[in-house]
Write a structure and sequence with these properties.
108 residues, mainly alpha, rod-shaped
Length: 108
């Protein structure tokens, strides 16, 4: 047998093994339904992931806003405290001056 006939037979046998008859209609319908389900499921998972990412971003921003508000409130309380201490010191110095003036007037 010539060599080319041998290769022809081998190629024919190997190519026919890859070409199988089409699957029955019920199997194709099942695969089609599975593909539809898989695509829909992936879309839902993608939407859930996007929603979770958006919620994480929103909660981080809200947390940052709350921190800023808390910092402003603390700063405001500190400023109020410093202002109150200054006013108290001013009142005390006025009171001391009045007491000294009154004690001098009562002595003299």
């Amino acid at each position: 047998m010539p060599l080319w006939v041998f290769f022809f037979v081998i190629l024919t046998l190997s190519s026919s093994s890859h070409c199988s008859p089409p699957p029955p209609l019920t199997l194709r319908m099942r695969r089609y339904a599975d593909a539809i389900f898989t695509n829909s499921y992936r879309k839902v998972l993608g939407q859930l992931s996007a929603r979770k990412l958006l919620q994480d971003i929103m909660s981080r921003q809200q947390g940052e806003r709350n921190q800023e508000r808390g910092a402003r409130a603390r700063l405001g309380r500190q400023v109020d405290s410093v202002w109150a201490e200054q006013k108290q010191m001013e009142l005390e110095s006025i009171l001391v001056a009045l007491l000294q003036k009154h004690s001098r007037n009562s002595q003299g």
